[in-house]
Write a structure and sequence with these properties.
Elements (H helix, E strand, L loop, with lengths): L3 H16 L1 H39 L4 E6 L2 E4 L2 E4 L8 H11 L3 E15 L6 E8 L11 E4 L4 H5 L4 E4 L1 H7 L12 E4 L2 E9 L9 E5 H4 L13 E6 L5 H16 L7 E4 L2 H43 L1 H9 L4 H41 L11 H27 L3 H5 L3
Parallel strand pairs: 5-10, 7-9
Antiparallel strand pairs: 1-11, 1-12, 2-3, 4-5, 4-8, 4-11, 6-9, 7-10, 8-9
Helix pairs in contact: 1-10, 2-8, 2-10, 2-11, 8-10, 8-11, 10-11
């Protein structure tokens, strides 16, 4: 617990700051600008990273891990069709989901092309049919704008329903609004499917796609020459989780099919591109950290310069206090309290300015980039990093002036002019 002299040292430090408002303001200004730069850059960096992750998730397959039964076997360097192609089941997909846990979304996938017609217009159009499970709704390329997505009950019943994309609706009948297709019957390879949902039109979704329950999708596709196996697909929540998910799935396959599982099934990822994306995000964070570190360094140097000038001006005062009984640690505490107060107050003001700047910059970016969904990613961690970093800078750069003041000889200090 602080003794009476130590408490007096803290009080003297605070009173000194109040007695010299201009000096305090100038020394605080460096920390304000440094913390504001730190918060704004961190917030912008978090927002840009979030936007990049969303784009990677929606427009690429970098976060996908796909388990596919092998259709061929290789003997003496020649490929022969397999007669024992694995038929992956819903129970196995649920087992994979228990292995993956919350790191990804697991679904079953059957894909193929189909000729699409209507009863009123028999002109065929080509569409990509994707048979899947109800849980894939959160990973659709665009949200359902009209109607609904199929449910687990629809999947269990192999319901003859479909959810189509806006481009497919436009191909079928460009004169109609895409939402008006809800409730209509569309023929896929001559098999009728009731449209229960239409996805939102988006500039980055141009494919003619139809989603169906996996069971009913089998009869809505053109026949495949070499077979069309059902796959288990896992969409990782983060790029960084792809490697661990693949490792866990491979261990699960080894338990299911023994050491020769690689001859029966393959696990595919874009591992090289995943590593490049993860490395790019890491470099981006390091670059942002370096920029903000320079800003705080400038603010810390400003604190040190002001406190050194204060030590020189108050040398006689320090000598009198030491002659009156103040110890080395009391003088040290006095000047460190000034430094931490400057950095603490500056960090609070800097956080507010930095957050405001980040939100303002992202608003300009959204306007210039035609509504690109880029928002500042201000969070509690950003606030804590800014405050802790500023206090650390205050302690670090205030330590030398404090030590210099504490080491002054009382007699020499009193006689200082």
């Amino acid at each position: 617990m602080l003794d009476r002299i130590a408490a007096s040292s803290l009080r003297v430090g605070f009173e000194t700051l109040r007695a010299n408002p201009m000096r305090t303001l100038l020394s605080t200004l460096g920390i304000i600008m440094g913390v504001a730069a730190l918060v704004s850059v961190l917030s912008l960096g978090d927002g840009m990273e979030r936007y990049a992750r969303e784009q990677i998730s929606k427009t690429t397959d970098l976060q996908s891990v796909v388990v596919t039964p092998s259709l061929f076997r290789t003997i003496d360097g020649q490929r022969f069709p397999r007669s024992d192609v694995l038929n992956l089941t819903r129970a196995q997909a649920d087992s994979v989901a228990s292995v993956v846990n919350a790191a990804g979304v697991v679904t079953m996938l059957l894909s193929g092309q189909a000729l699409v017609t209507t009863r009123a217009d028999t002109t065929p159009h080509v569409a990509q049919v994707l048979g899947t499970l109800a849980g894939v709704q959160s990973e659709l390329p665009a949200p359902v704008a009209a109607g609904r997505f199929f449910t687990e009950a629809d999947v269990q019943a192999d319901a003859p329903v479909a959810v189509i994309s806006a481009p497919l609706a436009a191909q079928i009948d460009p004169r109609r609004e895409s939402q008006s297709f809800v409730g209509d019957t569309v023929m896929f390879q001559g098999a009728p499917r009731v449209v229960i949902g239409v996805m939102q039109a988006k500039s980055d979704v141009r494919e003619a796609i139809a989603f169906m329950p996996i069971g009913s999708a089998k009869t809505a596709m053109a026949p495949a020459l070499v077979g069309r196996p059902v796959t288990i697909a896992v969409k990782a929540k983060r790029v960084e989780d792809v490697a661990s998910i693949r490792t866990n799935i491979e261990a699960w396959l080894a338990r299911q099919y023994g050491p020769t599982w690689k001859d029966r099934v393959s696990v595919s990822t874009n591992q090289a591109r995943v590593e490049q994306a993860a490395q790019g995000m890491l470099l981006f964070k390091l670059f942002m950290g370096a920029l903000t570190g320079i800003s705080l360094l400038v603010g810390g140097i400003g604190i040190m310069n002001v406190l050194l000038a204060s030590v020189i001006e108050r040398t006689r005062e320090i000598g009198i206090r030491k002659a009156a009984g103040a110890q080395h640690r009391h003088i040290l505490l006095q000047f460190l309290s000034e430094s931490v107060t400057i950095s603490g107050v500056g960090s609070m003001i800097g956080v507010a300015l930095g957050a405001g700047a980040a939100f303002g910059v992202t608003a300009v970016m959204r306007k210039v980039a035609a509504g690109a969904p880029i928002y500042a990613g201000f969070s509690l961690s950003t606030f804590l990093v800014a405050v802790v970093a500023s206090v650390f800078v205050g302690l670090t750069f205030g330590l030398y002036p404090a030590l210099r003041a504490a080491r002054l000889s009382p007699i020499d200090a009193i006689h200082h002019e």
